[in-house]
Amino acid sequence: MLKFLKGVVGGSGTGVKDLPYNLGEPYHSSWGSWLHYRGTSRDDGSPVSIFALSGNNPQDGHLAAGRNGVKRLRTVRHPNILPFLHSTEAEAIDSLSTKVTIYIVTEPVMPLSEKLKELSLKGTQRDEYYAWGLSQIAKAVSFLNNDCKLVHGNVCLASVVVTQTLDWKLHAFDVLSEFDGNNPSATGPMLQYEWLVGSQYKPTELVKSDWASIRKSPPWAIDSWGLGCLFYELFSGAKLSTTEELRNTAPIPKSLLPDYQRLLSSMPSRRLNSSKLLENSEYLQNKLVDTIHFMEILNLKDSVEKDTFFRKLPNLAEQLPRQIVLKKLLPLLASALEFGSAAAPALTALLKMGSWLSPEEFNAKVLPTIVKLFASNDRAIRVGLLQHIDQFGESLSAHTVDEKVYPHIATGFSDTSAFLRELTLKSMLILAPKLSQRTISTSLLKFLSKLQVDEEPAIRTNTTILLGNIASYLNEGTRKRVLINAFTVRALRDTFSPARGAGIMALCATSSYYDVTEIATRILPNIVVLTIDPDNDVRTKAFQAVEQFLQLLKHHYEKSNLEDSTGATHAGISSIPGNASILGWAMSSLTLKGKPSEHAPVATANSGTTASSTSPNTSLTVETPSTTMVRPSSSTELSDQPVPPSPTSTDGWGDVENGIHGEQESEKDGWDDLEPLEEPKPAPALANIQAAQKRPVSQPVPHSKPQASNLRPNTTSKTMREEDDELWGSIAAPMPKSSKPLNVKPAATVNDDDPWAAIAAPAPTTTAKPLSARAQPAKPAAPRLGAQRINRTSSSGM
Fold first, then answer.
1. What angle do CA 287, 289, 292 make, to 5 degrees?
2. 285, 412, 435, 591 from 406: Cα distances, Å
3. In a 3-state reduction of DSSP, which class is residue 735?
4. Which entry of 283, 350, 500, 505 is 20 to 30 Å from 466 by CA?
5. Which domain of life is it from (predicted)?
6. Could you report the per-residue pLDDT of 277-307, keeping only the tens digit for each?
7. Around Cβ 623, how many Cβ atoms within 10 Å?
8. What is the bridge-based pairing of β-strands 98-106 and 21-26?
9. H helices, E strands: number in the chain
10. In terms of DSSP bridges, do strands 109-111 and 98-106 run parallel, antiparallel, or are they unpaired?
């Protein structure tokens, strides 16, 4: 018989060495003769609780009752009953006696009396937590009495333990027995081990061992009395010593007093059933109990109820006991979100509760759930994650971002919702530093290239801002290929004025990555154009940028004069003070939420101007008063240039570079950097001019001004055109060796010695006096000369 009981207990060996757990320090209190130890698993080190009961005689009654408790604990399962993990029975034989020990392993728990001292709750929060715990024990007792027809026999403070999530669990099943009131032939004791129960916890009929009366009583009579004893010990804070102490109702809350008195009724048949206690007790109904109960049956609620509940939860959580929220509500909420039963608003509550945790606890309890949520197909979940990414983004490891988070976020770059595209773009400010160079080059830059030509102006603006901020995370080769092309070819030519302003600020913020050749030939020529921009803020930024880059060139010039010729050329130059404010503006423009100027570039501290404002979320549909660049005289020429084609290279800017490659050593004035990707073929008239320039001609008059450019397009207003007449006169073709003066307007007969004869303008209808050798400016009444006529001829020829 003993061997059979050992098999039921579950021991497969004869010693503690067969117990796959390590014993730790014992707690100060436990039920009956049991000892409660802290323990850990030998496999993974996870915490457990180990209960041990020892006896010198294998036939000891305590050991027999302990084996009964092990058997009952293994077979009875309920959320509010302590779960069984493992058990064994060990024998230790010495020269004098044999010591037998029963071990029960359960989930990690703590005696209720010690946990209450640790929590030290006061006032309303104490009552809310007590109500929640008592309702859990009442559910366990109701399950035993009403559903299983079992009698626990010793419900008291010592028979209750608390889990790590602060749940109350009922254990100590040594006295547990079936209720045989319906068996008329039963005559012996119904509770075989009732002698283990202290007399102060026994009702009158059990003290008298009146089994006949007990069998006639309802199944809950004995355990309802035990609930009353638990109530007294809980609220009085002292262990019950005599039954008479139960008459002292001073510690009992007034709302619980009627239920307390009914539980301790002298007549067993009139004692309150624990199920009725749960239904009708006023004390057991409060915010904490209702909130946890709603979370436990969340799958049974409809979407409207869930949405309403989760929208109220963040404010409600602040009113509940903080430790219960973090150890009970937070795990429930994380599990509900992870398995899809919670609505998107629950994410706000999860992050708010997570903010109350330490960084280590946040990484262990909240972050794994957030990472899994990025794989969700629910757009509302994705929007919530991106809107709050600043709260948890820094906690994500680089490996997690690169392998688990970014692949899911990247789908938002191509989403049909402009709002989601913008949120995805903004999230990269936090996540890009954690991405590998391979991911940045092959994926992120490709998406940013497409977003820089997005249909929404705010997205184009923010893309430029983002590129300026993540430039430091790009390798040198990528920066050379991407930055100037992205900021000059695209951003500075955008029809949206804040986008142009953002391009200027991005160039200034990344000025340390450009060498002097790039600044002089590719950056300054493109910025100078914007000094006559229709938008005042763009003009202001353009002048500031021109001044900044000119200072950089001046510093380089001064430095090169002091160095040897071998060290005159530098790969890069440091940015001047002031870049910090530009970079700070760019970062704030991405992270600020709810401000009208979020999508528009903001002037620096010393600019004294305010950028054009666009709303943060509604900016994607904002109506701008002017969405096309209006420039005097040259606007038509710039607008006629073809738009760069869609990117086809790995990162999207490789083709942009091809259009500008090889121009650094050109003798042109730098405006060609504004040309489209492919260099257009010159017009026939222009080809003739170039051919004429290659012919040998006499040296110009020493007093004439040096040639600035004989191909300069007409990019000014009417006033500038009149000044051009004088300039073009000064750079007209020099006089040939012939003694005849060169006529300003050639005659019909072509002179072979005149290099300009082949491309001269047709004869005028009026007679004009020839110019002097010093090329005096034409009179106002005379027709315009040289380039003006050539332009008209070339336009007609084309």
1. 105
2. 45, 10, 8, 19
3. coil
4. 350
5. Eukaryota
6. 999 999 999 999 999 999 989 989 999 999 9
7. 6
8. unpaired
9. 35, 10
10. unpaired
